[in-house]
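Figure caption, in words: inputs first, then the predicted bound structure.
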Amino acid sequence: MTIKDYNFAGKKAIVRVDFNVPLDENGKITDDTRIRGALPTLKHILENGGALIIMSHMGKPKGKVQAKFSLGQIKDAVAAALGRPVQFAEDCAKAQDQAAALKPGEVLLLENLRFYPEEEGKPVGIEKEDPAYEAAKKEMKARQKEFAKTLASYADCYVMDAFGTAHRKHASTAVIADYFDADNKMLGFLMEKEVAAVDAVLGDIKRPFVAIMGGSKVSSKIGIIENLLGKVDKLILCGGMTYTFAKAHGGEIGNSIVELDKLDVALGVEELAKKNGVELVMAEDAICGDSFSNDAKQQVCPSNAIPEGWEGLDAGPKAQEAFANAIKGAKTILWNGPAGVFEFDNFCDGSRAIGNAIAEATANGAFSLIGGGDSVACVNKFGLADKVSYISTGGGALLEAIEGKILPGVAAIKGE
Ligand code: AMP
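Bound structure (adenosine monophosphate present):
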């Protein structure tokens, strides 16, 4: 079923959204992108005469009730965004009565799903090495099904619109779909858009295809890096991982961030790139600071000759030029992860150079896909949000989709 074709009149829809929004210390939302992302689906259901049961996780409460992760904090913001009152269910697994009483046009927001360990379905308080782990896992999987069944019992239909968690096989993102027949479950508009954006990149790749992978570590991105080496023409590797590569070749990197146990991984990436004929572009120079701070003293050094007491915090001027040149002629672009500590205004020029080059290439007809919280924050910081083709709400989910994996949240609906 598709959301456009479904008749919501008189129906209750339980919708999994990603309302895992960042909050400040007073519980105020600092970035409401994810709430705005879900609005087309939520409004469509209400305008079509449906009632809404909204469910989400927030943060990592690890299966325990923790006030700082309560979705009650965002109830008023959701009400304001929808332009109508929102009721709140303080226990997401005991909301039967509130759900049953909902009338068309009414909205019920469930408390954080991850207050229950059943949501993620991982046994708690037991290590993988423990001989009892397998039995505990089996028991938790059974409890996860019961939890999903309870959530499903609140509604007539299920809509999956949480792209950010679509790569997880959780109770609310995938297991719940088993309790609805094919005519009563569907992807929401955001999911449809995200899946289409990935298809636009991978379906018919317009070349050259240039990917930019940054961020702090090579270890967390190695899967996608290896995968991209089978798809792209050029791969820019930047950010903190630069220094693991420099170190692997015996360079001096001062106090720069490094993964000493991943030097062979770095060399393996270079070998694979060579074998596949992919041009690797890495930062030849670095803007270094004498401490990890925005106000640190600065000097530009070769990335493999950073003096003791200094650390590489951004891509240097030569690197910025090389990155921009690599990006400018691209016809397909994927960006995940900043080129430096972009949160510091004095060390964000490398990321800015990438953002500007992507905007220029996009103006010249490239399709550019930006994903992952930090690169999205960069694009917003530099005022480039409307100069790129698509900004994904997913980090891990986007990368897994680009790797060609079928996301459990999609498979649960489409039965793939
Ligand atoms: P990730 O979560 O792996 O995508 O990494 C994003 C983080 O990497 C951002 O918070 C950046 O500040 C950080 N980062 C990027 N470059 C560096 C660097 N040279 N040194 C330390 N952290 C960095």
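The chain is about 35% helix and 15% strand.
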